[in-house]
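To illustrate the input format used throughout this study, we show a single complete record. The first block contains the structure-token representation of the backbone; no residue identities are included at this stage. The design step must infer an amino acid for every position from geometry alone.
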């Protein structure tokens, strides 16, 4: 996960994102990676592939993982889990990005997020 967050930070610098947008991108990457690691049931060592791009001012993050099928659009936010900690990641991702695509093909999930302005 640390590698993905570092990659997002470097991308934000190279893409010259405003501080607020850079912070939101880093948080989105961290939350999504944490969800994959914690909940996907992917084989240990299974890669999480991330692609970041900026095209005409639009920032997109594409993730691919080999975990169980999961579509974040189908999850209802029930608030934070105070006993376990966490529970706000999907809500944060939904607030700071638009889900452009989410599907499963050849045993891998693919999620495309567009950072909101």
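Output of the design step:
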């Amino acid at each position: 996960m640390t590698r993905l967050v570092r990659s997002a930070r470097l991308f934000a610098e190279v893409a010259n994102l405003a501080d607020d947008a850079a912070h939101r991108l880093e948080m989105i990457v961290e939350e999504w990676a944490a969800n994959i690691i914690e909940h996907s049931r992917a084989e240990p060592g299974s890669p999480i592939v991330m692609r970041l791009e900026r095209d005409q001012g639009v920032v997109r993050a594409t993730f691919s993982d080999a975990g169980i099928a999961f579509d974040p659009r189908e999850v209802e936010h029930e608030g934070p889990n105070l006993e376990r900690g966490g529970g706000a990641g999907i809500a944060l991702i939904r607030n700071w990005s638009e889900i452009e695509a989410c599907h499963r093909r050849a045993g891998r999930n693919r999620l495309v997020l567009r950072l909101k302005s």
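Structural context for interpreting the output: Residues 2-115 form a domain with the Heat Shock Protein 90 fold (CATH 3.30.565.10). The longest strand covers residues 97-105.
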